[in-house]
Amino acid sequence: MAIFPGTMRGMRRIALLCAAAFFFCGSPLSAQEPPCKVKNGPLRVNYPDMARRMKIEGTVRLSLQLGPGGVVRESKVLGGNPLLVSAAQESVKSARFENADGCVLTFEFKN
Questions:
Q1: What is the average per-residue pLDDT within 1-24?
Q2: CATH assignment of 28-109?
């Protein structure tokens, strides 16, 4: 006999919600998409002046959806400082990639 009636039912609901959240909200992008391979030489990234003055450093991760010829159709931000993200997204606009459908690209910004 439980001390608080209905406690077991509530605990089951919480356990089911946690299991569903883990299953549906996991990060499959990083596990499924390979790292990007650039066709036309190394990427040129302009470190934003404001970020440099503010001594902002960090990592930016982008998930790229590629079209025919390795052209970037869409880039989704997986993480990073917004000042640095804009510079990373700008650098991939003119790049061409070898991957067929999509890939994950990581940028390291250091002063």
A1: 54
A2: 3.30.2420.10
